[in-house]
Amino acid sequence: MNEKLNLKESTFISILKSMIRIRFFEENVAEIAKRQEIQCPVHLYIGQEAIASSICADLRNSDYVYSTHRSHGHYLAKGGDVNKIMAEIYCREEGCSRGRGGSMHVIDRNVGFMLSSPIVGGSISIAVGSALAAKMKNKGQVSVAFFGDGATDEGVFYESLNFAIVNKLPMIFVCENNSFSTHLPDFLRQSNTSVSERVKGFNINVDKVDGNNPFEIYKSVGKMIEKARNNEGPSLIECTTYRWLSHVGYWQDLDIGYRKKVDVEQWMNRCPIKFLANELIQNEVITQDEFIKLEEEIKNQINNAVIFAKNSSSPDPIFIMEGLYN
Ligand SMILES: Cc1ncc(C[n+]2csc(CCOP(=O)(O)OP(=O)(O)O)c2C)c(N)n1
To answer: How far is the CA of 52 from the centre of ligand 1 (A)?
Structure first.
């Protein structure tokens, strides 16, 4: 326990590791996409790493996580395997979805990563189905749905929320509010841009936190997980954040006119990794040297994942229909 920060040191070292792993993974994927080594589109998570890493820090392997088109960070934070997700992005048989899914259709039930879906809002209702199953099985499992503010433009979000509340399900709704749905800012889509305010009429336990601050997110979600495990019903956490790169791909979308360079720069100055690393170094949880070593180790791990993926086999076209309804 660190007295000054009032936190369990090992937890925040794990969160830092998870955030660095996601960052390096995504930076590597951006490079791979630039070199046109992969065919599937990639929606990168750079800038939002604190959310997945802090939300998943205390989840159990048996808890369920559901994700979106921006899936890599959620998968890695839930204990996913870097090799398997990299191979999936290369559409290889050794990928977590056996090369059939690519970046947006990630699945690995061994770590409770139930699915990611590019149908905006689509995975929320399925996550609520898992929460219902968890309640029926009564083994203390929690179901977590990650989604963006764009998903709250969809009816399925409100129906899922209502169902989870009425049935007191062990469900946590995690809204990563980065203000944009593709190239549309929130104020052009929503009468009230605050998701947490909008859902208050549902009588749900709700909190709004700085999505670039792992301390805030971890503290808030901890109470929500406890509530869910104690059969006290669902919660919603709105995490305000920003994506550094374009909606899809490795650009910054500065030529389209929906966001300004100065805004991107301001958010980049609020890098969640730098923030947490500085706090941990200043409070003597880790040293600068340990931090650098950590970065090197993770960089190597990601480089090895690229080698693993490239050496993996492509699915045999003969099995193309396998797993489909026919
Ligand atoms: C039902 C549906 N409508 C529209 C789209 C097209 N689309 C893909 S991603 C996206 C934006 C989603 O924004 P948000 O949910 O905030 O997530 P973010 O991209 O910001 O992570 C849209 C509209 C889609 N995939 N599915």
So the answer is: 18
Closest ligand 1 atom, residue 177 Cα: 16
Compute CA distances 1 → 77, 147, 287, 291, 325, whole Å: 23, 32, 16, 19, 52
Query: pLDDT tens for residues 37-93?
Result: 999 999 999 999 999 999 999 999 999 999 999 999 999 999 999 999 999 999 999
Spatial distance between the Cα atoms of 240 and 261, rounded to a whole number of angstroms: 19
Task: State the CATH number of the domain containing residue 301.
Answer: 3.40.50.970
Ligand 1 mutation pick, 44, 181, 193, 245, max ligand atoms within 8 A of CB: 181
pTM: 0.97
Total tally of structural domains belonging to the chain:
1
Name the residue among 40, 66, 43 with its Cα closest to residue 55.
66
- Domain span holding position 267: 9-182+192-305
pLDDT band (50, 70, 90) for residue 6: confident
